[in-house]
Amino acid sequence: MTTMPLEQLVEALQDGIVSVLSQGAEPEPRIDGVELLDCPEVVRATAPGHLLLGVGVDVADLDALDAALRTAADSSCALAVKCTVPARPDLVARIRDSGVPVLAVNPQMPWTRVQRLVTTILAASAVDSVPGGGTTGGDLFSLANAVAGIVGGAVAIMDTQQVVVAYSNLPDQPIDETRRRGILGRRVPEDALADHLDREVWVSDTVVRQHRAGDLPRTAVVIRAGEDVLGSLWVAFPDEAAAADCGPTLQEAARVAALHMLALRRQVDAEQESRDRALRSALEGRSGQSDLPGGVRLPAVLVGLSEAVVEGDGSSDSGVAARRRAALLRLVDLAVLDGRSLGYEPAAALIGDRVYVLLPTAGSGPVSTGVLLDHILDRARHSLHRSFVAVNSPTAGALSTLLRARRDIDAALDHLLEQHADRGAYRTEDLRPALVLRRLVGAVRDDADLRTGIAERLRAHDADHATEYSATLLAYLRHFGDVAAASGELHIHQNTLRLRLRRAEQLFEVSLTDPTRRLLLALELTALARP
Predict the structure, then answer these.
(1) pTM for this structure?
(2) Which end of the chain is less packed: N or C, by CB atoms within 10 Å?
(3) What is the residue-wise DSSP string for 336-377?
């Protein structure tokens, strides 16, 4: 890694990630590495000029902040803390007085992402400073053609999601069936994944040679920026002899490719963040348009996810809430990464305690949205150690249908959580009867003009006289007049249930033979029985 001015590092990071709270005492502070502040042994051995990530440092806790500032000052390092901006003037003054360069990190940004971005930017700067390591090859396709012309093979460049991002297209190149299908499908063919993901390729610092049965011999080299793996470069040769002595050329090509792929990653990340913001704005009704904001594609399927079981763990409420929100933010990242890896261009948003994912159906990936959703739930269960209930909508083709889809999804999630439904994926179409009933019951509950008033009289009598007419009638009506089933639900004798029904008819003029009155009574009792 090379050193980079602090201001240049901040400028290289995307907007909304970091900002400068204090430049420190040095006129032009420089950064040449990144470490976690919560590892004292590493920090003590850290060379000057590193950026210390203040994991766990609460700027509201002045003692903790002062301790972090002293550590950074003692090691001649800069400090990054999570802090909303603009920060309080007294806090900024306290930080500036320490003489330590301090960055404010967006509180919503995971520390792992900050660490990866800083490491990658510093590594890319180091590559860029090497003579001959600039981006003179043009784009990745130009680089692939240049390398293919030098080594005499057919070049393909893949990202970490097995997507073919570039390939050479010189005349008379060697080609086999795997390369042909990979280029046509723009991703590594399914039957070649095991060889493509061979651990030797991804951990090696040099080129690796492979010869899969039925294919041309290949040479592979991983594309890295520092410790961050960006993808891989593969060359198919006409024979084993042609694959010899090309290692230095391919390693240099991988260093140049790293710069292009870093730019591509930044572009993809920027486009993803734009889509995510647009989806959130649309779902919250803030787009102010009849059409969707830019970056969000329709037609698409909307998916809503909510944690299946939410329980305290004996910690403070704020601690439980913080861990839960952190898990939901990780679920957003997981859904986006998995969606992109399987050929979708998803948008995702965390609103309240629910995650919403939009999966465009046009040009969708090799698996259905249902399979993708099952995969996301399985990954969440294993990676986050939490279970989620998910509901997906029918295909939405316009903003108005997308908003209706969110209302249906929210109602479906509420219903499933109230019913303690099993974790997993559900469809709003399958839950339509329950959703319609919820809306009917909600309307009856909220509007006295939609009630006859008999349910209120029943509940008032039960409260004053310790009777159970409301529950008895509701069970009887819910089971369509089946005395055996209703008495079984209430755990009473059938004769007891019949006696209560006769008394209710006498006391409240309940008519259980009139279909209209039965329907209205069932709706009213259900509405008033729910909180």
Answers:
(1) 0.55
(2) C
(3) HHHHHHTT---EEEEETTEEEEEEE-TT--SS-HHHHHHHHH
